Amino acid sequence: MLIKKAEDLKSSEITPKSLYMNRRAFLTGTALTGGAMIAGIGVREAMSPSVIAHASANIDGIQKSSFSTSEKITPYTDVTHYNNYYEFSTDKEGPADLAKNFKTRPWTVTVDGLVKKKQVLDVDSIIKLASPEERIYRHRCVEGWSIVVPWVGFSLSELIKKAEPLPKAKFVEFTSANDPKQMPGVRVPVLDWPYVEGLRLDEAMHPLALLCFGMYGEALPNQDGAPLRLVLPWKYGFKSAKAIVRIRFTDSQPLNTWQKTASNEYGFYANVNPNVDHPRWSQAKERRLGEFLKRPTLMFNGYDQVASLYSGMDLKKNF
Amino acid sequence: MIRYFKVAVFVACLVPLGILGWGAYHGDLGANPIEKVTHSTGDWTLIFLLITLAITPLRKLTGQLWLIRFRRMLGLFAFFYASLHLTTYVWLDKFFDLHEMLVDIGKRKFITAGMTALVLMIPLAITSTRGWIRRLGGRNWNLLHRLIYFSAIASVVHYLWLVKADIRKPLQYAFVLALLLGYRIVNWAVPKPEPSAVRNTRKGPPEPLASE
User: Fold this and answer.
1) What does DSSP say about strands A145-155 and A285-288: parallel, antiparallel, or unpaired?
2) pLDDT in tens, A29-46
3) Rounded CA gap, A121 and A210, in Å?
4) Is the pTM of this model over 0.90?
5) Nearest chain B alpha carbon to A74
6) Is the preceding peptide bond at A165 cis, omega within 30 degrees of 0?
7) Cα(B209)–Cα(B212) distance, rounded to whole angstroms?
8) A278 touches chain B (CB under 8 A)
9) Which long-range contacts (CB under 8 A, 24 or more apart) does B141-149 make?
10) How many angstroms separate the CA atoms of A109 and A243, rounded?
11) Which residues in chain B have Cβ-Cβ distances shorter than 8 Å to A81?
């Protein structure tokens, strides 16, 4: 019996992109019938083709990862047309169009602060630091919706190790691009630009923390944070900074943008936690895009392996 | 003539619902259809509330008295979209979980505000008939229907309190509402020079509604 190893199965072999991009055509008419709604069946779950394909891979040599979930992957069009990227728009459907001409090359990332090797790296040299892996992660937004995305990248720790942080370094701060010429959102002071995020060094070194430059086997689309972003699946989505231009190592806790904006609502840690509500809404449940009924939110978004990072901490205080 | 015009306005008021229905039928409401329905019905509630509140100032400023004949319909459409908005919350967001909803109403300020706005609209919808105007008398009816001011304020506050950081859109609604309420305050505060017998357009509803 021939058993194809997962690595041998090219994602492009599963379903042609044109087919799954057109999937809405399959749903026409039947999609929102009252019966399905009353029965509480996830509408798309019931109707869409059972196999969700990836786009034709243009990142070579992508390895599978044991961190991947086997849950149903959210359709590419949803992940690319429904996301928060305030540098382009506060409307979740806005970034797809507004980011389409965003220039992601040439692109450099400044690595500085408390490291031995302060340097300015070209993004293409960063991408080559380690071999790319596909990590199919759950992604939970602080607003209460979630998706499952096959990201491509490698552990952030690979880059950090090469930067050689000094013993004094306890935190890492990430700064996102802030270009008013290309990003209409930063012309409006909705947030204090540039967007800044941060992690404790041990969080950043956790193998789950992904330095991401692709998804669905392809290079990261502009609206999803190209050319380089973080993906921290156990934290709310806003922690996963997009379009990173600077990585700085510090000895004091960085003040991340959302905490600066509303410190009573958004903390430094922002770990997914169904027991700690956002002051204005419950975090106990989430709506997985494409599903009709809400599902319970899991502690650390189901990534229990990070729990030891926070042992002994009061997560109600350190939200 | 005005009857045909009324039919046209009635149909126009249903267009937002039609667009949603069309989108739902074609699976074209985006990645999060439930959120889209919630936001759209909420937006249209506010828009209809503001249009309703604009009738009296418009009528007084332009002298177009016939405008008043559309006020009830527009107000009822505000209530209609508010009810749809509530339905999306009760059904699609909370799945009829009464306990969770009660917790929400008590604990989440923006839900409290939204609920207040809706509850204040209920007596207005009920007493919108000619029979109720007669029963209450024009004066009491007018007094009762001032609740719409508070309902509109609560609606805008509901919106302001729920957004994450970008308050531009709720502020636009707040600005229009402030103009409409400001007009009334000025009207009320500035004494009228002409004798009251000349104009009887200060409080609109009973007279024109009775002519329907």
Assistant:
1) parallel
2) 333 334 444 344 344 433
3) 18
4) no
5) B31
6) no
7) 5
8) no
9) B141/B205, B141/B206, B142/B203, B142/B205, B142/B206, B145/B205, B147/B120, B147/B121, B147/B123, B148/B49, B148/B52, B148/B53, B148/B75, B148/B120, B148/B121, B148/B124, B149/B53, B149/B181, B149/B184
10) 10
11) 30-31
Instruction: Evaluate if residue A295 carries a pLDDT over 50.
Output: yes
How many beta-carbon pairs under 8 angstroms link A with B?
60
Rounded Cα–Cα distance for residues A123 and A226 (Å): 10
What ipTM goes with this model?
A: 0.81
Closest-CA residue of A relative to B160 is: A280
pLDDT of A228 over the 60 cut: yes
Q: How many Å apart are CA B42 and CA B92, to the nearest integer?
A: 14
Q: Indicate yes or no: CB of B31 within 8 angstroms of CB of A280.
A: no
Helix (H, G, I), strand (E, B) or coil at B71: helix
Q: What is the mean pLDDT of chain B?
A: 90
Helix (H), strand (E) at residue A219: strand A218-219
> Is A282–B28 a contact, with Cβ atoms under 8 angstroms apart?
no
Residues A218 and A11: beta-carbon distance below 8 Å: no
Q: Is A88 on the interface with B (CB under 8 A)?
A: no
Token digits of residue B89: 């919350």
Chain A within 8 Å of B110 (Cβ-Cβ)? yes
Cα–Cα dist B83/B43, whole Å = 13
Q: How far is CA A279 from CA A142, A168, A316, B116, B164, in A?
A: 11, 35, 12, 19, 11
Answer yes or no: do A24 and B28 touch at CB < 8 A: yes
Cβ–Cβ of A86/B33 closer than 8 Å? no
Q: Which of A82, A90, A143 sits opposite B31 (nearest CB)?
A: A82
CA A13, chain centre distance (Å): 25
**pLDDT value at residue B152:** 98
Per-residue model confidence (pLDDT) at position A51: 35
Give me A277's structure tokens: 């509500």
Verify whether the Cβ–Cβ distance B27 to A31 is below 8 Å.
yes
Transcribe B87-138 into DSSP letters. Answer: HIIIIIITTT-HHHHHHHHHH-HHHHHHHHHHHHHHHHHHTTSHHHHHHH-H
Contact across the interface for A32 and B24, Cβ inside 8 Å: yes
